[in-house]
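Quick one: structure tokens for this chain, please?
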Amino acid sequence: MFIFNEHLKAIRQSKNITQKQIATAIGLSESNYQLFEYGKFKPSFYTLIALADYFNVSIDFLVGRTENPKINK
């Protein structure tokens, strides 16, 4: 099961960051970022790294391979 969009939305909300703020921080348009959270689009490898770095979590956490955000970081 690919739960990237669920983890992405949950971590963003837990940090009280808007979609626009994260999109701007990693160089995306807000509408492109929204597609990730809605599960309509999967990020590129480089965008996935940028998201993991921005939120200070592992890529494994973002893509649902672990529930521990620090595993493999």
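The chain has five helices and no strands.
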